[in-house]
Amino acid sequence: MTPINRDHRRVVIVSAGLSVPSSTRLLADNLGAATARAIAARGEEVDIQHVELRPLAHALADHLLTGFPATELAAALDAVSHAEGVIVVTPVFSASYSGLFKTFFDVLEPGALDGTPVLVAATAGTARHSLVLDHALRPLFAYLRAVVVPTGVFAASEDFGSTADGSLDKRVERAASELAVLVSGATAPAPALRRTPADEFAAPTPFEQLLREAGGDAVR
């Protein structure tokens, strides 16, 4: 893993492919390249860092048992914790994300992804598994309080190669553009404009006034 330049936008890709070569890694690379282009198009520079979980499998198991991450795993966890945007890609096993993928986010420090934009993606042999994005990945990152971009990217085997219809490329570009907007903070509201449930009851309208307004006698 290469060091991140703190002067640039920082995007970390987490991929959990098990084979070499891997369609999961291929999709991760495509998403990373598209995100870099989308952020550059906004006039900003970006550093893309890739965290491949396959080499970290033993370190993850050891961390679960000991509570202490090895050096390379600690660096990967730190990179994700300090990223301004995260792209996650997992193969599908038994209709959900892989155990290796889940283990990595199990050992991530609580609160590490609070408010962090996350692009979710998955690969599988057939399109029958495409619901994994909404039934498994979105709930996981909602629980981790990340901000999941609207477009998730699922790729089946048929989406790669000469017979692909190009729809995967369109989904990749769209999701990357959405992540770029969130990473750049273009749509983030000013803190003063954010409302909490408590704000709604901070200065309630008197019931008597509501009755007068309902009867057409508005208070001036």
Beta-sheet strand percentage? 15-25%
Low-confidence stretches: 1-6, 186-200
The rounded distance between the terminal residues' Cα atoms is 64 Å
Mean pLDDT score: 85
The ordered H/E elements are: EHEHHEEHEHEEHH
- Number of domain units: 1
Named at the architecture level, the CATH assignment is 3-Layer(aba) Sandwich
Instruction: Kindly provide the name of the CATH class.
Output: Alpha Beta
Protein model, in words:
The chain is α/β, with parallel strands linked by helices and 220 residues long. It has one domain (9-192): Rossmann fold (3-Layer(aba) Sandwich). 39% of the residues lie in helices and 18% in strands. It contains seven helices and seven strands. Strands 1, 2, 3, 4, 5, 6 and 7 form a seven-stranded mixed β-sheet that branches. α5 links the parallel β5 (117-124) and β6. The longest helix has 19 residues, at 23-41. It is globular, with a radius of gyration of 21 Å. It starts with 8 loop residues before the first strand and ends in a 6-residue tail after the last helix. The model is unreliable at 1-6 and 186-200 (pLDDT under 50).
